[in-house]
Amino acid sequence: MFKNRVIITGPASEELGINLSRKSGIQLMKPEIKIFSDGESKITMESVKNKNCTIIQSLYPPIDRHIIQLLMMIHKCKLDRAAKITVIIPYMAYARQDKEFVKGEVITIALLAKLLKYFNIFKLITIDIHSKESLSYFGGNIINVSAIPLLARYVLDNIDTYNVIVVSPDYGGFSRAQKFAKILKKDVIYLNKNRNRQTGDIKIETKYGTDLKGKKIILVDDMISTGNSIIKSCELLKKNGVANILVVCTHALLLNEALIKIKQSGANEIISTNSVPNLCSKVDLSDILYSSIKDK
Ligand code: R5P
């Protein structure tokens, strides 16, 4: 049935590519990657002439290397005259650079969107892109799939949710946390986060006088990068007497020993998807990705 289809798994998404191929029955192709001493990547892959290709490559660090590798794989499919190219980018890098926050800043997600549009690919699929603004640069052929229902289902199946309150670290992520809380049938609040756009420093305060004493907290965010947003949130929540904290996010980049620091700040556990493969990535995205590609 899928004779003409192939899943091309990039070096950043091997596990996901394998899972997706197993789930869908679509043949897996793993390009050969070599990294030279100067940091350049070399990719070798067999011909995909007339094939319906799905390339999967997440854009976590080293971000720029993963981007160029993705562009190389798309370029090769184009040169081979693949019948159709679908690209899955589980974690979309640069999506936080979606506005000119400080005069003169480059809106890098707009550049990335332009590069991908250049190839005129059939469909682009991503998971929980940071903002609506970043999504808007891609035009009509991008599908932004939410992993929130999958994360909520994982929590319902594995965690005791008695006395839980769902918390978003900022207002920007409130609707995401609301969606999560609705599935759990729990109350939800957001904290007040202010970022100094010059230094990147953040300050977090409680928004409401909600009594959090003795509550079990589920902190929901789209991503953890340095962990600062979550660390500051945990410190504040602990000061307010919460019983324990579970952190749930889609993309856990966990840079600069963020995992250790987050645990030191009071979080008991972190659960994320495998858009970024690591110790916390307990939730496999291949189910929802399969639904997005099965009819392509
Ligand atoms: C911000 O608006 C995002 O939703 C995340 O909260 C933030 O980007 C995470 O970054 P970090 O872990 O460095 O605080």
Quick recap of the structure?
The protein is α/β, with parallel strands linked by helices. It has helices spanning 14-24, 63-79, 108-118, 132-136, 148-158, 174-184, 228-239, 258-264, 286-293; strands spanning 5-9, 27-29, 32-35, 41-44, 52-56, 84-89, 123-127, 142-145, 164-168, 188-195, 202-206, 216-224, 244-252, 269-273, 281-283. 31% of the residues lie in helices and 27% in strands.
Q: How far apart are the termini?
A: 13 Å
What CATH architecture label of the largest domain applies? 3-Layer(aba) Sandwich
Order of helices and strands: EHEEEEHEHEHEHEHEEEHEHEEH
Estimate nothing, just give the exact number of structural domains.
Answer: 2
Q: How much β-strand is present in the residues? A: 25-35%
| Overall form | globular
Tally of DSSP helical segments: 9
The biggest sheet, with number of strands, parallel, antiparallel or mixed sense and barrel status, is:
7 strands, mixed
Bound molecules: ribose-5-phosphate
Structural class, by secondary structure, is alpha/beta
The count of strands amounts to: 15
Radius of gyration: 20 Å
How would you characterize the overall build of this protein?
The protein has two domains: 152 residues, Rossmann fold (3-Layer(aba) Sandwich); 127 residues, Rossmann fold. The protein has nine helices and 15 strands. By secondary structure, the chain is α/β, with parallel strands linked by helices. Strand 6, helix 3 and strand 7 form a beta-alpha-beta unit. The mean pLDDT is 94. The structure holds ribose-5-phosphate.
